[in-house]
Amino acid sequence: MDSLIPFTTSGSLVDCVDRKMLVILRDGRKLHGVLRSYDQFANLVLEDTVERIYHGNAFAEHWHGLFLIRGENVVLLGEVDLDQEDDVPLRQVDYQVLDPYHRNDIAQKKLHDEAKAKILYEQRGFCKEGGEGDGY
């Protein structure tokens, strides 16, 4: 009976070791790399890590190598299907070409999020991000 209960702790990552993974962080960065190790807090060690940025139908990669990620910063962790990875209909461009567009996208998103937070605070009674009552 116990074997039917899903394994939901960080121990469930044991099958992901030595596989190519996509990790999305709280700040929005998207990292691709080989998961080499993890601990009980879901801190991750990625090898051969690249950070991907996207704009429109293009993407660019910036190589980071060995990357240590604190578990609390992980939003999503998923295995990359190596058979389908090359079938993605995006074209790869140089990082320096795409970086200004990506930074502009981030700035626009920040302005949008700030305007949304202001409306939620002033008109809907929500607390400010990180303010009193925002703890979990």
Automatic annotation (TrEMBL):
**Which InterPro entries does this UniProt record tie to the protein?**
Lsm1, LSM_dom_sf, PTHR15588, Sm, Sm_dom_euk/arc
What are the Sm domain coordinates in residue numbering?
8-83
User: So where does this one cross the membrane?
Assistant: none
Q: Its GO CC terms? A: Lsm1-7-Pat1 complex; P-body; ribonucleoprotein complex
The subunit field of the Swiss-Prot or TrEMBL record says: Component of the heptameric LSM1-LSM7 complex that forms a seven-membered ring structure with a donut shape.
- Which family does the entry's similarity section mention? Belongs to the snRNP Sm proteins family.
Please give the name of this protein: U6 snRNA-associated Sm-like protein LSm1
> Which species is listed as the source?
Coniophora puteana (strain RWD-64-598)
Lineage, broadest ranks: Eukaryota, Fungi, Dikarya, Basidiomycota, Agaricomycotina
Gene behind this chain?
LSM1
